[in-house]
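Researcher: We're teaching a course module on how sequence relates to structure. For the next exercise, students receive a sequence and then see the predicted structure as tokens, so they can try to spot secondary structure elements on their own. Here is the exercise chain.
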Amino acid sequence: MDGMNRYRYVAHFGLIALATVLATVLGAVLGIGCGAGAGGHDGVVRTADGAVVGVQYDQETGDPVGLERHRRWSDRVGQGAQPHGDVAFENLAALGYTTVLSVDGAVPAVDAAKKHGLRYVHIPIGYDGVPDDAAARIIAAVERSAGPVYIHCHHGRHRGPAAAMVARITVDKISNDDAVASMKLSGTSPKYEGLYRDIAQFVGVSAAAKNAVPATLPSTVLPKGIQANMVGVDRSYTYLTQSRANDWKGVPDSPDVSTPHEARMLWEHFRELRREPKAKAHGASFIGFAKDSEKSAIALEKALRANNEAATELAFSQVKNSCNACHKQFRN
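Model: And here is the predicted structure for the students to work with:
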């Protein structure tokens, strides 16, 4: 089986069945549940070392495969990075989750989640804080879910943890200080002052925001304008980063992705970004960063098509530096 040297299976189906029977018997006799999470019984079967039966784990990180930076805070709330691949949703289901909540701008993999009995809820937020209306929806998603909710952003470090803490303060009744400490533990950068501010001061949502929550929360919110372009930039940049890690020989898990084409898509997104009214409203400095990034991405495409490794590395580093400088001024 491919990947056996990297992944371990906690148990085969026979062990799952045996463990389930034993857990059920013990539960009936001793009054205990199948397994305990951070905040109590989480309804999953565990081995003696605490691993969840049926979940594939990455031996290097200890995370469930496809779920980087996974943290299960309580019976109701977990968090992590964007799920990657079918195995991620398989693991989420095995971990007992029933709902996946994305606060990232990218369109969620709704069909992949549905295949494993998971429902997606999409509530995009920015890096500047958690608005009242978004907080109300996050809370509603957790309160309405039939089981635990996995909350994620893109990397699982900043927006996702903040959203998870909104839910935990309300549903798990933790203190604001504990919530802030949990964000720090998750690696949320102190540069995102708005996220920390909103969690430190969160006391609930207004009646107006609560009443405005729709009866059915959407599984997909299509990005528009500047957000749509930034989602496209992020997608192409991620593909390029993965290809670079593979010596620019393509994206290992996505053979249909053309690296030079993604470089072209990258500069196209930067070009469109400069035309957006909201981008222009950020001022000349923001437009300058976008223009520099576009120029470097054009050079990257040319270098890739010419198989010029030195020029490729130089152009990619220029794109990266330009993006980091822009983030430092306008996102951080």
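Model: If you want an answer key for the exercise: Residues 284-305 form the longest helix (22 residues). Confidence is low (pLDDT under 50) at residues 1-41.
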